[in-house]
Predict the 3D structure of the following.
Amino acid sequence: MNIRKIGVIGAGLMGAGIAQVAAQAGYQVILRDLEDKLVEKGFSVIKKNLEKAQSKGKLTKDEVQEVLGRMSTTTQLGDLQDADLIIEAIIEHMPIKKELFTQLDQICKPEAIFATNTSGLSITELATVTKRCQQVIGMHFFNPVPVMKLVEIIRGEETSTEVLEVIRQVTEKMGKESITVNEAPLFAVNRILVPMLNEAMFVLMEGIAEAEDIDKGMCLGANHPIGPLALADLVGLDTLLFVMETLHKETGDSKYRPCPLLRQKVRAGHLGKKTGQGFYKY
Ligand code: CAA
Ligand code: NAD
């Protein structure tokens, strides 16, 4: 299938980044969120990123205009009806994603592929609300999308080999490397990474070390680019709590219980960098 137009749903941290790399790769992109102010916020992040790249000499003024010219925004799901590929990047909550996929299945053309950027929910379960299970796939980008090289591609129970191949090609065209994994809670990368972030929160909660020292320890002692608590703030603590809850629920293993400190921060509305406060203040 020839992919020309991509509909990105959710203009938050991930959706804006995905829309940017898709437009830079030459695709027509339509970005959708629930309210005007949310799509405008996502679009302004993209514009700022592109202008920064221009000021560094990585893009010319004309190239920035061309990329922006390939993008449009909407709050109306119906505007995505002619998209060849949908990449969903909304809240990490199965019932809300299912509701969206049910609507998309009615709106989009039958051959359109539905990809989800979920951090760890079941692709197979999400696909069941559509009449196109073979065309539903996981396309897991990493944050910040314009910088991180990897896309983890996840095959659901029914995902076809043809669709997998199309998504590999789209990933490559976006300038990303891919790995292909079979469906499992949190897939491969987050299964390893997210419990480590959760463990760092226990180390803080148990008073073993201060936040700054935990992060400094992991940067200098394990060569991580940023420490686990700073990374948790970058990802978003609400998203991380949803992801840990998925791992805990799906495995039934108490070693994956979300750290109470994480829950407390989310209850306080301190969701990390995006709200100006998490384990650190921004
Ligand atoms: N958007 C676009 N570009 C960004 C950016 C953003 N949000 N943040 C940083 N950059 C760019 C900067 O502009 C800079 O570009 P140049 O090289 O062209 O100057 C470059 O990235 C480096 O940035 P900085 O010098 O400001 O800062 P840094 O050296 O600390 O790098 C970082 C920033 C790349 C984010 C680095 O800290 C890092 O790699 N952190 C770890 C990120 C990570 O592990 N991500 C995975 C999260 S888990 C996940 O995504 C999965 C999930 O489901 C939860
Ligand atoms: P976010 O909170 O920054 O953005 C989510 C956006 O989706 C919000 O703007 C919200 O208004 C919008 N939204 C919610 N329901 C919608 C709907 N029905 N239609 C359109 N828009 C809707 O979240 P995020 O960090 O961008 O995460 C999005 C998805 O990407 C989640 O599934 C998350 O697990 C996954 N993910 C996140 C990261 C990360 O580091 N934050 C990394 C990889 C994957």
Summary: The radius of gyration is 19 Å.
